[in-house]
Write the structure tokens for this entry.
Amino acid sequence: MTVADVVKRSTEFLARKGVPSPRVDAEHLIGKALGLTRLELYLHYDRPLDDAELAEIRELVKRRGGREPLAYILGEWGFRRLTLRVDERALIPRPETEVVVERCLALLAGVETPAVLDVGTGTGAIALAIADELPGSRVTAIDASADALALARENAERTGLRVEFLQHDLLEGLPRGPYDLVVSNPPYVEPDELTGLEPEVREWEPREALVGHGMTEGVARGAQAVLEPGGWLVLEVGDGTAEVISELLATLGFGAVAATRDLAGRDRVVEGTWA
């Protein structure tokens, strides 16, 4: 059986299991088993596979057919200029969160050595991306989960980037600043929305990082006490909630409140400045 045969059969299997992008996922998984990139895979389409290679591919494809997230199976995932380790200890970094980083970089342009606080860091994606793309920044990242922090520290070591990681619960407020910018991708899925999510999210990603009623407001209120005058708060928000969160920030006293759309055209990032 050749690589081409296995790609075809794996794609058909994943499609029957309801995987949204069966061909792409099959290619990623087969590439992982063979130590090849997707591009290199195309150059080996006529290559016969031995029994050990076929067994490895079957196991990976079976896991994806069970709707385990592709990123968890691969063990790593791209985020902006970084490739991060990912597993069940934290949410998988998503494209919409890259827009959050873009807004942070834009707001901090011209600040020589900005102090940044990332609340609920997970894999460390936001904190590490800012440290990577804004040399001279002093980034602190917090999370209530010791497991998530361990993963974030592994990613800092992997990327060679310097971020201070602290275990800290939002119920205790935020670590003493002052900060030029507070950023967060807090849990914003409502409990009654959980059943409507894809199995990859609902059954595999950590629930405490998904569902958190009132967490966004908690971050906003906590930011009031630790931001420099003129500092910024940047929040990723749930689909359809940008207007409500914008009104919340305005009520709390934030100015220049604005929403930014993600790549799908949905208002996904809300920001405001603390005067």
In short: The chain is about 40% helix and 20% strand. The longest helix spans residues 51-65. The CA atoms of residues 87 and 102 lie 25 Å apart.
